Amino acid sequence: ALTGIDPEFAKRELERACRELPGLPDPAQRLAKLLEIEGDLAGAEQLMRGVVQQHPHLPLPRLILARLLRKQHRAEDALAFLETPQADSSTTWRLPVEQASVLAVLGRVDEAMEAANAAVLASPRAPQVYERRADLLLQLQRPAEALADADRACAMAPTNFDCHRTRARICIRMGRYEEAAKSLRQVVALN
Fold this sequence. Notes:
By secondary structure, this protein is mainly alpha-helical.
């Protein structure tokens, strides 16, 4: 975890680990996250491309690379990295959810909803799945359905501030400002 540690120290240590253990996915993934936080998306992308090249069978580095590409408005490139032959238990819900986000950016709404629904079917107990599908439904101008998913995510993970933040955005869109304020207070309390 990078919290509670001087970011420069963490960056130096992760860079050292990447040099001493080239191709090892975990330090590279953590360094990529740190670079992403610092706003160096290109550097994080380059680092993750190296990991994906060395470990094409691992789904998590591909997922991270796809997310970085999407954040750089390169959704078409991102989609190619989300087509993995086999997902492990840590990525069962993440791959279809990220694929749904990328497809939504590309305007392929029906495919995006199929991917989001596949994520829910794959991991019905993961609150992140419902939170991300709620976000997608909000983008698709379906706030009532989005609110139902956000409520479910908040009920499943009451300490997850992303769920409450998404719920607040949905309530604002629906004109339910008191509910939005309550959700935002929860976000502040959790963050």
